Every structure is written in C-alpha cells, then in structure tokens.
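Hi all, long-time lurker, first post. I run a small reading group and we've been trying to get comfortable going from sequence to structure in the token notation. Rather than ask abstract questions, I figured I'd post a concrete chain and ask someone more experienced to write out its structure so we can walk through it together at our next meeting. Sequence below, copied exactly:
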Amino acid sequence: MYSRSQVTKALAEFARTKADYVRALAIANEMLESLRRGTVTVSVPWLLFQKARAQLGLSRLAEARVVLEQARQIAGGSEQRTILWRILSALADLTVEAAEAQSLREQARELVNFIVAHTPDELRATFQARPDVQTLLARVEVSP
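-- Answer (accepted) --
Happy to help. Here is the structure in token form:
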C-alpha cells in the first residue's frame, strides 16, 4: 500500500511529464501546505524543486528562481545531495552570467561524483545513465 504522500508525489511527477504544469503546481502547493500542518512527511526540497519545475513550464522564471533558491538553502543545510545537484543544475539553467552558471554546474557535478562514489556497484551505471545526469555532465566545461 502507498501513502498519500507517495501517491501525490507520483501524481506531481506524472503531471509535470505530461506538461500539465498547472496541475503539477497545484499538487506541489497542496503538499507544501500539508507539510506546514505537519500531516505529510516528504522532502521539502524535492517539493520545492517540483514546484519550480512547474513554474518553469508556465514560463514563471523569476518565481521559479526564488523557489529554487529556497530549495537550495534547505537541501544544502541538511546535506540532501540527491536533490541538491538537481536544484543547482536548474539554477544554472536560469543564470544569465556564464561564470556563475558554470560554478553552479560544477557544484552539481561534484555532488553527482559524490553520489556515484557512494552508490552500490549494481546501481551506479543506472544513475550515471540518467538523462539529467548526462545533460549536466555534458554541460560542465572541463577545467584544466
């Protein structure tokens, strides 16, 4: 049996992948409100990341950046590396200044490298083959 938070999390991801950003944003907001009341236990940075992705889909770039910064602060403070690298990568995509964007991508790459180093052998290739991981690694300039 799945918990309400697991089902809602899956629905938010499904709505986002189907480009139903209004629904994905509504689900993220509903879950964040539930968290404030203490009724749902799920990763706040993950929810904020999903909310920002929905805002991006609705072309609400400034709002998405604010939400991603909130997610970054919470995830960084609690060392939630598995979502933090995705937050940093998304922030890099919203950053106009090239050096700052590159710095964010490098930070994300360092987290990916940490995750790879601490992932069991049988799961490592699957993680490394993820499209979002591949996109990040392709976009990080190789430093001399």
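A couple of things your group might point at:
The radius of gyration is 16 Å.
The CA atoms of residues 118 and 124 lie 9 Å apart.
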